Amino acid sequence: MTLNHPIDDAEAARLAADFPALDQEVNGHRLAYLDSGATSQKPSAVLDAERDFYEHHNAAVHRGAHTLAALATERFEDARAKVAGFIGADIDEVVWTSGATEALNLIAYGISNASAGLGGEAAKRFAIGAGDVIVTTEGEHHANLIPWQELAARTGATLRVIPILDDATLDMEAAAALITPEVKLVAFTHVSNVSAVINPVSELVALARAADALVVLDACQSVPHMGVNVRELDVDFAAFSGHKMLGPTGIGVLYGRSELLNALPPFLTGGSMITTVTLEKAEYLPAPQRFEAGTQQVAQAIGLAAAIDYLDAVGLDRIHEREAELGARMYRGAAAIPGIRVLGPSEAALRSGVVALDVEGVHAHDVGQYLDDRGIAIRVGHHCAQPLHRRLGVTASTRISPYFYNTTAEIDAVIEALGEVRAYFGLAD
């Protein structure tokens, strides 16, 4: 059944009851968990799915001939199909990884191997070297910046960075100038984990296509919060993590076009990803198994499938609408407090529900401690995005990242506490 009505506070409270970790007190206050941009809480359905696997179907997948192994393999591959359907991909275009960080490194190291001559004729399409260019942006999480820095260093390619404007949106004029025919790959985030900016994917993809460059999308902050169809976005690769979308830790997803995955040399090698091995060489399975060496994270994949069922039942359109409402409320409340600067654009259409801010004269860690004393869990620091913070003129920020299980009362509690912070530290105007 598809629900069309918006999520209100009453429904958010009912949904929160599905999450055991939310039912507790912290420092004498009812927990208000507003750090879902770092990691989301897990509903009982996900915890039960993992436990059920271990209790009834635990076995190594794609190996044993016994009944438990067959059942485990079936559930493992059913989970892959669930993820594929969730993002509009084919089942052989979904690779299991430990997280988005491994997924992005898998691409970078696969290209590095191709550039070293591995992978045969099919892999030559990925080879890069001196004179070639990789493009990323100033607003990236380190996981979508450092792999490309390292790839450029290994291959002799040049790394170009699309700058951001004062409101943290991308400088698209600069992007058009930087994405030239020498560019082989363009990597960017869909939604910033700091500024909340929703990047113009279609415009960036068009620029990359004109240069005949590959497109890599960091979808960590979009897939859990809005409908994402990789086919419609026309990206070549995309990465996201299970733990940010109600799923377990230790499971991530790499999406790649089938023809690209089958041409890309593998990153990790070992058992389960081969067809034939001699003492001199090995031949590899087709994608996605060619990238899944060793013992797989079966319970985590099954847990992620249960998380997708939960998200589908709530409805991603409703989730996105609810988060936009909470984020706008948080933005308005924080921006109205003297001495607080909210990072990112003011236009709601350009933002996700995340709100990161700087409190004048008070370090983000102190702000976080003040909120934590009131049972409010938020994130402080540079959020693995030091260049972005440096561009915006701050060393760290306080980030509030709601999810659909949060209420307006929790947002208001944060706003109230933020209004007290500067006075508490003797900085009231």
From TrEMBL:
Belongs to the class-V pyridoxal-phosphate-dependent aminotransferase family. Csd subfamily. It is an enzyme of class 2 (transferase). NCBIfam families: sufS. PANTHER family: CYSTEINE DESULFURASE, CYSTEINE DESULFURASE 1, CHLOROPLASTIC. It catalyses: (sulfur carrier)-H + L-cysteine = (sulfur carrier)-SH + L-alanine. Its EC number is 2.8.1.7. Keywords: Pyridoxal phosphate, Transferase. Its cofactor is pyridoxal 5'-phosphate. GO terms for molecular function: cysteine desulfurase activity; pyridoxal phosphate binding. This is Cysteine desulfurase. InterPro entries: Aminotrans_V_dom, Aminotrans_V_PyrdxlP_BS, Cys_dSase_SufS, PyrdxlP-dep_Trfase, PyrdxlP-dep_Trfase_major, PyrdxlP-dep_Trfase_small. It holds the Pfam family Aminotran_5. One of its GO terms (biological process) is cysteine metabolic process. The gene is sufS. Catalyzes the removal of elemental sulfur and selenium atoms from L-cysteine, L-cystine, L-selenocysteine, and L-selenocystine to produce L-alanine. It comes from the Bacteria. The keyword Transmembrane does not apply. Residues 33-414 form the Aminotransferase class V domain.
